[in-house]
C-alpha cells in the first residue's frame, strides 16, 4: 500500500512558511502523496440547514493554487485532491487548472472529484445542486477529452465546445480521476468511470459489505478490481468528520499506534491500495501535525 497525509487545510493557517514546512516535511518523511480538500464558500449554520460538518468558520485554501505552491517546493510527492467538487465548477476551467498543476509538478497530480453536499455553495457559484450527479459523469468524459486532444468539438447537456482545446495539455495527456463518496449511485459511478475511490468509511463489517458491493459493481461494469485504486483515511483520534458529523471534545484524544495499525491491516485485508493519515481535529499546531504524521509513518513502516 501507498501512504499519504491529509493536508490539515482547516488548521494549517495562512502562514506560507508553515505550509512550506508541512509539505516538505511529509515528503522528507517518505510519504507517497498529500491530499487537499475543496470548498469555495462556507455557509452560516444559523441561517441554513447544512448536512455536512463545514461552515463559514472553517478555512479552506483554494486547492489548485495551494498545489501550485506545493509543486514548487517539493520534488516527488504526489499531489491529490480529495475531492474537488466538480459540478459547481466550469468544466473547461477545471481541466485547465488541473493540467497546469500537473505540468508544473512534473505529472504528479491525481484528481479526486466529488459532487459535494452544500447547496448554499452551489447557489453561490451559480450551479444546479439537483443535477450534480448526472453532470459529473459528463464532466469526466469531457475532462478526459480535453486532456488528450489539442482540439475537440463536444455537444453535451451542460457543456458545449466547438473546435477548441486547452494548452498546455497535462503530462502524458491524462490525469488519474478518482472519486469520493459512499452513496450507492456514487459507488456505481466510480465502478464504471473511476480510476480510484476515496472510501470514506471504517473497515468494519458494514465497510466490508460496502466493499463487496463495490467489487460487484466493478465486475458488472466489465472491469477488474485491480484496475481501480482504493484509498482509506485513518484518523489519529476518534474524529467523526468522515461520517459527516461535527467533532466532539471527547473525540480529540489521540488513539494508540496499535489502534492505527489494526485499522491499517483491516484496510489491507479489504484491498485498499492507499492509506491517508488524518491528523486534524486534535487542536494541533502546524509542528504538531508534522510530528503526528511522523509517528503515523513510523507505525505504518513497522507493519
CATH superfamily: Luciferase-like domain
Secondary-structure-based class equals alpha/beta
Average the pLDDT over all residues and give the rounded result.
94
CATH class: Alpha Beta
Tell me what the CATH architecture is. Answer: Alpha-Beta Barrel
Number of domain modules: 1
Topology as H/E string? EHEHEEHEHHEEEHEHEHEH
Strand order of the largest sheet: 1-2-3-5-8-9-10-11
Strand element count: 11
**Shape descriptor:** globular
- Count of helical regions: 9
Query: What is Rg?
Result: 19 Å
Strand % is 15-25%
Helix content: 25-40%
Largest sheet: 8 strands, parallel, barrel
Cα-to-Cα separation, first versus last residue: 11 Å
Regions with pLDDT < 50 over 5+ consecutive residues?
A: none
CATH topology: TIM Barrel
Describe, in plain words, how this protein is organized in 3D.
By secondary structure, the protein is α/β, with parallel strands linked by helices. The protein has one domain: TIM Barrel (Alpha-Beta Barrel). Helices cover 39% and strands 17% of the residues. It has helices at 16-28, 63-73, 91-104, 119-124, 132-148, 184-193, 205-220, 257-270, 286-301; strands at residues 2-6, 33-36, 78-81, 84-85, 109-114, 152-155, 160-164, 177-180, 196-199, 229-235, 274-278. Strands 1-2-3-5-8-9-10-11 form an 8-stranded parallel β-barrel, surrounded by 6 helices. A two-stranded antiparallel sheet has the order 6-7. Helix 2 packs parallel to helix 3 and helix 6 (184-193) crosses helix 7. The longest helix has 17 residues, at 132-148. It starts with a strand and ends with a helix.
